[in-house]
């Protein structure tokens, strides 16, 4: 018997029996019965025996000939399931980009009644054969008994036979379906127009026999057994439609070429075959070797309007040669990298490393050479040359015949970074991110799995790339919030990367100019090593930052223009000098919201408890959480007043304002609204890099990772956006955003400047970001976290009860509350006591020994409405659980998951978020 992680929201693996005809190994995918359905699962470990009183079912089918997940990834997946309290099957589903090899489809399955019917029909056939044997004169003709007299179906006798003959139904036959091939063994017997009842019974038996072996698609069943038979079986309850998951047929790939020079006299060929021959011999196809270029058969057949049968005819005639290249997985092909206008990246391999870089490199490469797991936090200010270190470490891992993985936030995966990797490592690189088409992802995954690509560059989920012999894992911009997945499993890519390195015995490097508090704390107390790059390369200074107090600005000008005189003057000077500027405003849209001056209402989203943002380009009000939108009303929807007022400014409005203020400047905007146009994002970045844009306005999309040497001024229109959010990470996020965007200035030879406009110049996040004083911010923020018992000094989890109906959300919350009351008697909210540090940090740091927090073990905050009380139509009731020990918190949450399962609380109505990045 084996454990299987079934791809369904079940909090633990299930046990199945392996029939002797299968040989299964851990990491293989299988189909298993789950209730009345079929589900996909990943084989885990064999188990000795079942718990008493439960009977294991047989697994149904193997999906892969080989295990798909190597042991390291199995271990990693199980760690994620346990640590993040997520269903193991859902974790593995997320780890595999290969689900297009199976798919959900409507299929007919045989029922118990159907099996009885089949038995009856078979018996009847035997009887008939016996009768025939006894009466040799009537060979081949079955006795014309009426169908199933006395059987419940007899009421259908005498129904018009017009049902017959409508076989070969018009349903779309899905070409890649496994069910497309004729059901094995049975000769297809389409219903002939004059088919008699006898024939119908035969087809019925054949149909039920086939169905007993595997589910069938309706159109296929109709084609082979007749629509009458299929319809009757459904009406009688012998067959039922189910949504099943099934294996896709392997795609046939044939490589075709001319076998040699064409003979003078061609044999007689069908017209299709002739067209194929013409296409192959056409001069557009470069002749290469004797028989010309190999061609993939699909485009060839498409252009020549030919069929596989035509091809086979040509093969028989010796005119073409065909190679079967069908394989498990896609055909090997190099990554096509189009020209993105970035030109050849700087070849850094010839740089002389700076002293700081050299010191860090020597330390890191010693660790790499040790072939043992360890983690180093590479804290290097913006522009200190961290990327060059990553590249050299990767090269070194390759020299040692090991592989390397580098994670970047979604947005840092710009063409520049990709081009840099490809220029250094060529076809050794596979790029994995969610923006790829499924086929491309599939391909990159397989190249890594087969060892054809030894370097994987990708975003969060690339942490699951099937690299073997992994030597190095790099997480760039490790503080970035996009590493946290905001759906089940809610894992943090950075922490999973550390665990992946641990499992593989690899070196893990976390890099950032603004490390997360978690990582820096782990470095401070020795869980991670620390490597520092304190200055920029080539002795370039960090940009100088100046804070503009917008309160003073308003007192002096009474102007509503969101751009201070100081910033305007600076930009004028930039334009005069021909230098480039980045303008940050972390808010997209035109105005934040509409406000009615008569009744004070603002239009809200129908699905979310949030005001709608005005987008002028579409002239609509848009919800930034769910995408809901409505046309802009001319009157207040609540009171019909005409006095509607637009409050606040977003990037769209700033863009307008800038075009007005600087009519000769070339201004572009970069935020999620424009990035949605395919290829636009890359195009704008490329033009900016080439100096074809003077002012680039954007949201945090412009703050991250980019290396634009021409930028010498960064203006922050408002630094205050994120500070007001009721989230304990608000200050940390603001500090990171400001420091990162400041880091875009002065990366070339000319020193850079930064202007930060704010209404809170004395806020420590703004003050310390202006001073680019990370250590100062860390010390200050840690005092706050310690006092409030927030991460990293305590472990934190968030539980949200959510449902479209408020009562149902409340009901789920009650279950949760009851569980906590029982599991933590008298421990509800002991938040007092001097704050000594708990042994926490981030997931990957592990947990050692009991807490040193004295009386504090757990604190449960809630239930209460989440700050965003409704999102996407669901009401949300939130709990926050702080704990001194990560292990104990994990035990508490696993208990909660089992409790909820036992109480039959539907899985989607409770969200468990370990180490939440946002508590909104
Ligand atoms: P970071 O990632 O730390 O912000 P980058 O790795 O982007 O910094 O490096 C900033 C710039 O410095 C890049 O253009 C890079 O090519 C260049 N650079 C890196 N190392 C050196 C070096 N040793 N000497 C000269 N230039 C370097
Ligand atoms: Zn109103
Ligand atoms: Zn909404």
Describe the protein.
By secondary structure, this protein is of the alpha/beta class. About 30% of the residues lie in helices and about 20% in strands. It is built from 25 helices and 33 strands. It has a 7-stranded parallel β-sheet with strand order 14-15-13-16-17-12-18, sandwiched between helices. The protein has a 6-stranded mixed β-sheet with strand order 5-2-1-4-3-6. The protein has a 6-stranded parallel β-sheet with strand order 19-29-28-20-27-26, with helices on both faces. Bound molecules: adenosine-5'-diphosphate (ADP) and zinc ion (ZN) (2 copies). The site of one zinc ion has 7 residues, from loops. The site of adenosine-5'-diphosphate (ADP) has 18 residues, from helix 11.
Structure in a nutshell:
By secondary structure, the protein is α/β, with parallel strands linked by helices. The protein is globular. The site of one zinc ion has 7 residues, from loops.
């Amino acid at each position: 018997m084996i454990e299987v992680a079934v791809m369904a929201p079940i909090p633990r693996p299930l046990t199945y029996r392996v029939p002797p005809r299968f040989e299964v190994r851990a990491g293989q995918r299988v189909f298993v019965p789950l209730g009345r359905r079929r589900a996909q699962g990943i084989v885990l470990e064999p188990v000795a025996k079942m718990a008493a009183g439960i009977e294991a079912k047989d697994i149904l089918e193997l999906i892969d000939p080989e295990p798909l997940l190597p042991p390291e990834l199995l271990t990693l997946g199980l760690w994620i399931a346990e640590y993040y309290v997520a269903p193991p099957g859902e974790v593995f589903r997320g780890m595999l980009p290969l689900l297009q090899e199976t798919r959900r489809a409507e299929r007919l399955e045989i029922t118990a009644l159907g099996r009885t019917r089949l038995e009856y029909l078979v018996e009847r056939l035997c009887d008939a054969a016996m009768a025939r044997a006894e009466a040799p004169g009537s060979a081949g003709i079955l006795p014309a008994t009426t169908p199933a007299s006395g059987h419940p179906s007899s009421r259908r006798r005498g129904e018009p036979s017009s049902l017959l003959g409508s076989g070969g139904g018009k349903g779309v036959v899905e070409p890649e379906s496994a069910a497309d091939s004729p059901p094995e063994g049975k000769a297809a017997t389409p219903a002939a127009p004059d088919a008699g009842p006898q024939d119908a019974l035969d087809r019925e038996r054949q149909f039920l026999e086939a169905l007993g072996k595997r589910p069938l698609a309706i159109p296929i069943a109709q084609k082979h057994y007749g629509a009458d038979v299929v319809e009757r079986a459904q009406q009688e309850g012998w067959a039922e439609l189910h949504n099943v998951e099934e294996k896709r047929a392997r795609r046939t790939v044939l490589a075709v070429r001319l076998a040699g020079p064409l003979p003078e006299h061609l044999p007689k060929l069908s017209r299709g075959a002739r067209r194929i021959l013409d296409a192959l011999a056409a001069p557009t196809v470069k002749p290469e070797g004797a028989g010309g270029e190999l061609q993939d058969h699909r485009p060839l057949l498409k252009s020549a309007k030919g069929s596989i049968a035509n091809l086979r005819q040509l093969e028989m005639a010796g005119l073409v040669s065909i190679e079967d290249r069908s394989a498990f997985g896609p055909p090997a092909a190099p990554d096509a990298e189009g020209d993105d206008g970035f030109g050849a990246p700087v070849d850094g391999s010839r740089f002389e490393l700076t002293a700081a870089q050299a010191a860090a490199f020597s330390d890191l490469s010693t660790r790499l050479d040790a072939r043992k797991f360890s983690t180093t936090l590479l804290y290097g200010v913006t522009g200190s040359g961290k990327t060059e270190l990553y590249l050299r470490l990767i090269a070194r891992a390759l020299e040692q015949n090991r592989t390397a993985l580098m994670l970047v936030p979604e947005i840092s995966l710009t063409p520049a970074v990709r081009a840099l990797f490809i220029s250094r490592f060529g076809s050794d690189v596979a790029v994995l991110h969610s923006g790829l088409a499924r086929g491309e992802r599939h391909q990159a995954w397989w190249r890594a799995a087969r060892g054809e690509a030894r370097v994987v560059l990708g975003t969060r989920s690339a942490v699951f790339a099937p690299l073997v012999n992994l030597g190095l894992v790099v997480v760039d911009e490790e503080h970035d919030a996009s590493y946290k997945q905001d759906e089940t499993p809610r894992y943090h890519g950075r922490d999973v990367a550390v665990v992946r390195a641990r499992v593989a015995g690899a070196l893990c490097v976390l890099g950032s100019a603004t490390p997360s508090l978690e990582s820096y704390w782990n470095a401070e107390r020795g869980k991670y090593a620390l490597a520092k790059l304190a200055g920029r390369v080539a002795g370039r200074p960090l940009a100088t930052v100046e804070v503009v107090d917008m309160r003073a600005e308003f007192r002096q000008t009474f102007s509503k223009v969101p751009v201070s005189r100081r910033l305007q003057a600076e930009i004028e000077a930039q334009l005069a000098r021909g230098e480039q500027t980045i303008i940050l405003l972390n808010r997209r849209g035109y105005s934040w919201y509409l406000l009615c001056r008569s009744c004070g209402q603002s239009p809200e989203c129908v699905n979310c408890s949030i005001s709608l943002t005005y987008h002028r380009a579409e002239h609509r009000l848009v919800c930034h959480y769910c995408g809901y939108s409505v046309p802009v009303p001319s009157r207040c929807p609540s009171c019909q007043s005409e006095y509607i007022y637009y409050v606040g400014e977003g990037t769209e409005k700033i863009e307008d304002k800038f075009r007005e203020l600087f009519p000769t400047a070339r201004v572009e905007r970069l935020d999620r609204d424009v990035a949605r146009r395919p290829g636009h994002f890359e195009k704008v970045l490329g033009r900016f890099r080439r100096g074809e844009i003077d002012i680039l306005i954007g949201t945090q999309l412009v703050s991250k990772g980019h290396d634009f040497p021409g930028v010498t001024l960064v203006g922050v229109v408002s630094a205050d956006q994120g500070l007001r959010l009721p989230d304990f990470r608000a200050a940390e996020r603001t500090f990171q955003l400001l420091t990162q965007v400041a880091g875009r200035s002065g990366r070339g030879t000319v020193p850079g400047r930064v202007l930060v406009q704010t209404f809170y110049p004395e806020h420590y996040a703004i003050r310390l970001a202006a001073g680019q004083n990370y250590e100062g911010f860390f010390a200050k923020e840690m005092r706050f976290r310690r006092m409030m018992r927030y991460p990293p000094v305590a472990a934190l989890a968030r539980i949200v009860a959510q449902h479209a109906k408020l009562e149902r959300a409340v009901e789920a919350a009650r279950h949760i509350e009851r569980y906590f009351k029982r599991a933590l008697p008298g421990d509800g909210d002991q938040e007092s006591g001097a704050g000594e540090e708990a042994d926490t940090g981030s997931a990957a740091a592990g947990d050692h020994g009991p807490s040193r927090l004295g009386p504090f073990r757990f604190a449960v905050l809630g239930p209460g409405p989440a700050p965003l009380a409704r999102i996407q139509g669901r009401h949300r009731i939130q709990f926050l659980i702080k704990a001194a020990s990560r292990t104990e918190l994990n035990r508490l949450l696993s208990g909660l998951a089992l409790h909820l399962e036992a109480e039959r609380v539907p899985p989607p109505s409770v969200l468990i978020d370990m180490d939440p990045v946002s508590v909104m």
